[in-house]
């Protein structure tokens, strides 16, 4: 009786609303960890450069970006708390069916990552004068380590939902048989690497974009020039790596989730020598593509490394395949953004190397690209998560079976509230970032003389 | 009750204890910083900065206890997690919006345009109020076993207000401990005005729980239980009287005894929690779902327990370290 009380089938409306609500929350949430995961390591880099050289510009860079970090971290924490509740409120069937696997993974994330980062964040942000430089560096390392551990555990769980392994089903519930196989499931290495590099790229373009904006406003202080270089070079180095890793990730998906690849490539019927579609309007009614424009044989070549390799079409999956258009388009937005990142970061790196600065037109492009990492990351997540539908756990549990029976009206009302709040907070976040950049190194309020230069002077004295 | 010598018997009990400790840690720790948020509206601008500085290094970690508590319920008792959170869907949503507003206001008030600072202060207060009130209604409704009647709704509203007083008391006594001068004098006054409302809330919850369930009534009022359990209400009353007495005399010369009201208030929360835990055990949803019915598979609980046994003492260690680093009176927060 209890079981039926919470897994009573959700109506189609409530299911769609629950999915939109969860998607809205998780989309909003991922924006902030994507920044903090890599920004923590970039802050450590600034700190270590300062410790090694004593050059005040590194402490100035640290001082500016640690404020961005604190703000971003807070948004990540509060949206993450929302997530931890919505697992239960929106998807009770998820924990009921695979709780024996998902539970320990989530518990390890909280135990090994959340407390570490949250506790040492206090010391990293406000403890400098109390604990001294060395302990402060240690706190920065622990925060960076904590954010990466958190990414590791949640990606273990997410990867397991795509490529479940190391379990058996008893009475409709998953039971763990091999924890190593669960943790290091087939898609984890690719997904984890892909996401960590995505975080690095997001931060690279954020740092470069904000620095370029300060440069355009006439701020040519050493700290701004240094962060412009760090951001640009980080992007220029990571983007080719990301293209290689993304390709490997795609091959892994072809092996384990061929329906997702068929949706990405818009392949309705199994074909040999499939073209790489640059543009098309996938039509779910006719089960074909309208206005298709593609490069012949290229999709087969990329995915099978054979000129006329066979790609399985969507018709082979008995209707258990994802909706095509959103996956198809999200993939093209991700790849397009990636190619743009490649062009901009390499060109900027070349100009920085040659001239020591970037021309105003390029700087403006970099400002436009400030949040390009968000675009690529979110569309990439849409590809992989919508691409798994109609499954919540591939081949084990369907999304519809996991939904709760909370009435559509309750979900709809709270969804409207969350969306309003998120739009306002996102606007406030972007506004605050540019406000901090505008204040630049005049940011020390009266009574807080501690700029990097002052600290550096104090340390040398 | 199943055989406690088997893993399927004792693991759920251990996890109930871990979850209880996490929830108690959350209520006490986030309770004082939510309380400071509630009191913010009554303070002048200069005091607001100092009040927020007193909780700045801690609030992130304080809220993590909520994630751990809910996470343990989710992972150890998935069935109860589904029932409880589905029943509490709307107050949970209100609490989450409150916590979100508050957490971001903390950062934005210091980083956004100074012209907007008062708006973020207001958001900080409103978020604290919404989160606290929602948690109080959740507590009240949970105790009544999610009964849908009007009387239950009124009781839940009452516990909502009572928890505002309770967190206000925790926040005010925390400020007595962490501040000095005029702000400390204000904090003593705030503590006095929230003390008796808190006591009324604790008394109402203590009386309501046995009245809802004959089983709970029996546990408390049968002989010899009533004698053995008497120390709990007696000690709670004593702690309230201690707090009241000290609040009449503080602030004292050389700031002696400034820690007493906070410690006594924490004591009240711990005792109230123990009383509630005794009433409910072994049920997770009053008289409907026991911990054994709701528990995950023993092999999964064992994996978590191994991790928790190693990591929880470490967390305790570095939490103590962080509180030592920021011991003494709150100073202005600076990043360098």
Describe this structure in words.
The complex is a heterodimer of chains A (461) and B (336). Chain A is mainly alpha-helical. Chain A has helices at 2-7, 12-53, 56-90, 92-126, 128-162, 179-183, 188-216, 222-256, 258-265, 298-304, 324-355, 360-368, 372-386, 399-402, 408-439, 452-460; strands at residues 167-170, 173-176, 271-272, 276-283, 288-295, 310-311, 391-393, 397-398. The longest helix of chain A is centred in the N-terminal third of the chain and has 42 residues, at 12-53. In chain A, 53% of the residues are buried. Mean pLDDT of chain A is 87; it is low at 1-8, 441-450 and 457-461. Chain B is mostly helical and 336 residues long. At the A-B interface, helix 1, helix 3, helix 4, helix 5 and strand 2 of A face helix 3, helix 4, helix 5 and helix 14 of B.
What's the main sheet of chain B like? Answer: 2 strands, antiparallel
- The geometry of chain A reads as globular
* Rg over C-alpha atoms of chain A, rounded to the nearest angstrom: 24 Å
Low-confidence stretches of chain B: none
Order of H and E elements of chain A: HHHHHEEHHHHEEEHEHHHEEHHH
Helix and strand sequence of chain B: HHHHHHHHHHHHEEHH
**Spatial arrangement of strands, main beta sheet of chain B:** 1-2
Strand content of chain A: 5-15%
Q: Please give the share of residues in helix of chain A.
A: over 70%
Major sheet details of chain A: 2 strands, antiparallel
How many structural domains in the coordinates of chain B? 1
Major beta sheet, strand line-up of chain A: 1-2
Annotation field: number of helices of chain B: 14
User: Helix/strand-derived class of chain B?
Assistant: mainly alpha
Distance between the termini of chain B: 56 Å
The separation of the N and C termini of chain A measures: 73 Å
């Amino acid at each position: 009786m209890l079981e039926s009380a919470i897994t009573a089938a959700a109506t189609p409306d409530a299911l769609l609303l629950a999915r939109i609500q969860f998607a809205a929350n998780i989309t909003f949430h991922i924006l902030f960890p994507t920044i903090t995961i890599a920004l923590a390591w970039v802050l450590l880099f600034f700190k270590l450069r300062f410790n090694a050289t004593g050059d005040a510009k590194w402490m100035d860079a640290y001082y500016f970006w640690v404020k961005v970090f604190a703000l971003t971290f807070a948004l990540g924490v509060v949206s993450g708390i929302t997530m931890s509740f919505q697992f239960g409120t929106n998807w009770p069937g998820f924990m009921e069916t695979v709780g024996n696997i998902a539970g320990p993974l989530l518990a390890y994330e909280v135990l090994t990552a959340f407390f570490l980062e949250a506790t040492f964040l206090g010391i990293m942000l406000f403890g400098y004068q109390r604990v001294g430089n060395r302990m402060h560096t240690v706190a920065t390392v622990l925060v960076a380590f904590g954010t990466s551990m958190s990414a590791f555990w949640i990606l273990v769980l997410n990867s397991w939902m795509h490529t479940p392994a190391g379990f058996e089903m008893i009475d409709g519930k998953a039971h763990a048989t091999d924890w190593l196989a669960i943790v290091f499931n087939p898609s984890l290495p690719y997904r984890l690497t892909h996401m960590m590099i995505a975080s690095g790229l997001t931060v690279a373009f954020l740092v470069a974009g904000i620095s370029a904006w300060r440069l355009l406003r006439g701020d040519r202080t050493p700290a701004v020039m240094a962060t412009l270089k760090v951001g640009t070079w980080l992007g220029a180095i990571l983007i080719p790596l990301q293209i290689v890793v993304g390709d490997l990730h795609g091959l892994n998906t072809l092996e384990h989730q061929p329906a997702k690849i068929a949706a990405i490539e818009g392949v309705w019927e199994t074909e040999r020598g499939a073209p790489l579609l640059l543009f098309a309007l996938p039509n779910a009614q006719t089960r074909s593509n309208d206005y298709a424009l593609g490069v012949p044989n290229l999709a087969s070549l990329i995915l099978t490394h054979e000129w006329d390799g066979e790609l399985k079409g969507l018709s082979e999956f008995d209707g258990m395949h994802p909706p095509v258009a959103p996956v198809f388009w999200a993939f093209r937005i991700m790849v397009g953004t990636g190619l743009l990142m490649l062009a901009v970061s390499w060109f900027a790196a070349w100009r920085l190397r040659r001239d020591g600065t970037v021309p105003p037109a390029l700087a403006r492009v970099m400002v436009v690209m400030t949040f390009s990492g968000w675009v690529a990351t979110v569309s990439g997540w849409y590809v992989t998560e919508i691409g798994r539908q109609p499954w919540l756990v591939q081949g084990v549990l369907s999304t519809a079976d996991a939904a709760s029976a909370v009435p559509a009206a309750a979900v709809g009302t709270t969804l409207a509230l969350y969306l309003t709040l998120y739009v306002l907070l996102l606007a406030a976040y972007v506004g605050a970032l540019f406000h901090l950049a505008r204040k630049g190194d005049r940011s020390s309020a009266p009574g807080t003389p501690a700029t990097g230069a002052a600290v550096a002077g104090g340390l040398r004295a | 009750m199943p055989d406690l010598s088997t893993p399927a018997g004792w693991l759920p009990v251990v996890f109930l204890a871990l979850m209880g400790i996490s929830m108690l840690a959350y209520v006490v720790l986030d309770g004082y910083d939510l309380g400071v948020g509630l009191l913010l509206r009554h303070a002048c601008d200069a005091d607001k900065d100092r009040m927020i500085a007193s909780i700045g290094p801690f609030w992130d970690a304080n809220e993590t206890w909520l994630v751990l508590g809910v996470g343990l319920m989710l992972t150890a008792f998935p069935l109860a997690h589904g029932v409880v959170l589905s029943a509490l869907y709307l107050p949970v949503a209100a609490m989450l919006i409150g916590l979100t507003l508050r957490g971001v206001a903390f950062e934005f008030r210091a980083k956004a345009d100074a012209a907007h600072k008062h708006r973020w202060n207001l958001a900080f207060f409103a978020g604290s109020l919404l989160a606290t009130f929602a948690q109080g209604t959740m507590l009240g409704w949970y105790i009544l076993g999610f009964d849908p009647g009007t009387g239950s709704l009124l009781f839940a509203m009452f516990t909502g207000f009572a928890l505002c007083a309770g967190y206000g008391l925790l926040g005010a006594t925390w400020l007595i401990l962490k501040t000095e001068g005029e702000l400390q004098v204000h904090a003593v006054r705030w503590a006095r005005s929230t003390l008796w409302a808190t006591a009324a809330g604790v008394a109402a919850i203590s009386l309501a729980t046995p009245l809802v369930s004959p089983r709970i009534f029996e546990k408390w009022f049968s002989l010899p239980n009533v004698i053995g359990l008497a120390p709990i209400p007696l000690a709670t009353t004593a702690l309230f009287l201690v707090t009241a007495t000290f609040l009449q005399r503080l602030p004292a010369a050389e700031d002696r005894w400034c820690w007493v009201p906070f410690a006594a208030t924490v004591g009240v929360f711990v005792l109230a929690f123990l009383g509630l835990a005794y009433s409910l055990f072994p049920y997770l949803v009053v008289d409907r779902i026991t911990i054994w019915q709701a528990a995950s598979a023993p092999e999964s609980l064992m994996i978590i327990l191994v991790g928790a046994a190693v990591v929880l003492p470490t967390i305790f260690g570095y939490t103590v370290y962080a509180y030592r680093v920021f011991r003494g009176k709150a100073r202005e927060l600076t990043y360098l």
